[in-house]
């Protein structure tokens, strides 16, 4: 297990002391360093555990992009420990973004040693681990999500939302929800990166959003994004 944090020494000591089959092989102060360490064959990690600090959580969209892009090519399952802030809708949407990529577990930062150990073993075994509060909210959000409406000109209108998203904007928003970067969205849709940025700016304007994570959160809430 490789930790992308130095601030959970006591918890990890309890974990490795209580569960001898788990071995803490080291830590890294940030995601970039964890990526470099995990790519080093000598490290021999099976799981990367990332602890999201409050400052990193507040970065919102950028924290998602950094985490996904930095760890995407490591080839190791990621267990994420994160706080649940006041803006819970965005937190849950962000969790959905992480779970669409190589993140295989999302636990609360106040998880016990037993919960962390169980999470590490589960993701190492190929299972997906979700903090109960996150799982419950995702389920409730899915159940209460109102249906979108197709307007006469073929545009998709999210409930109680004006103006509507175009079909292309809906495609872009869906790919944003999958955590794709601008260049990857452009490649998948066969359009230029400049055009993708224009669509993203249009989505921001229509949703009143300022970050990609916020736009996805609004899209989830209004039924414009399917989890």
Task: Explain what you see.
The chain is of the alpha/beta class and 227 residues long. The protein folds into 2 domains: 2-141, Response regulator (Rossmann fold); 146-222, Winged helix-like DNA-binding domain superfamily/Winged helix DNA-binding domain (Arc Repressor Mutant, subunit A). It has 11 helices and 8 strands.
Brief digest:
The chain has 227 residues and is α/β, with parallel strands linked by helices.
Q: Spans of 5+ residues with little confidence (pLDDT < 50)?
A: 55-61, 85-89, 147-159
CATH topology of the largest domain: Rossmann fold
Structural class: alpha/beta
String of helices and strands: EHEHEHHEHEHEHEEHHHH
Radius of gyration: 19 Å
The overall average pLDDT, rounded, is 68
**How many beta-strand segments?**
8
Strand content: 5-15%
User: Level of helix content?
Assistant: 40-55%
Any guess at the CATH architecture of the largest domain? 3-Layer(aba) Sandwich
Largest sheet: 6 strands, parallel
Distance between the termini: 29 Å
Shape assignment: elongated
Oligomer: single chain
Number of domains: 2
CATH superfamily of the largest domain: Response regulator
CATH hierarchy, class of the largest domain: Alpha Beta
């Amino acid at each position: 297990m490789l930790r992308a944090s130095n601030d959970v020494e006591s918890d990890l000591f309890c974990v490795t002391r209580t569960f001898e089959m788990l071995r803490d092989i080291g830590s890294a102060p940030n995601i970039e360093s964890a990526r470099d360490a995990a790519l080093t064959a000598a490290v021999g990690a099976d799981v990367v555990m990332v602890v999201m600090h409050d400052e990193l959580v507040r970065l919102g969209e950028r924290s998602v992009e950094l985490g996904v892009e930095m760890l995407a090519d490591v080839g190791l399952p990621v267990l994420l420990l994160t706080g649940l802030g006041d803006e819970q809708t965005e937190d849950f949407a962000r969790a959905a973004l992480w779970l669409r990529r190589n993140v295989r577990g999302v636990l609360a930062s106040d998880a016990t040693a037993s919960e962390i150990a169980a999470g590490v073993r589960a993701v190492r075994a190929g299972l997906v681990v979700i903090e109960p509060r996150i799982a419950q909210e995702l389920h409730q959000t899915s159940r209460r999500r109102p249906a979108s409406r197709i307007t006469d000109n073929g545009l998709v209108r999210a409930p109680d939302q004006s103006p509507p998203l175009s079909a292309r904007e809906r495609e872009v928003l869906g790919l944003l929800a999958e955590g794709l970067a601008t260049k990857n969205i452009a490649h998948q849709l066969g359009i230029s990166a400049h055009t993708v940025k224009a669509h993203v700016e249009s989505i921001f304007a229509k949703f009143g959003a300022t970050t990609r994570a916020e736009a996805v959160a609004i899209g989830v809430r209004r039924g414009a994004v399917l989890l």
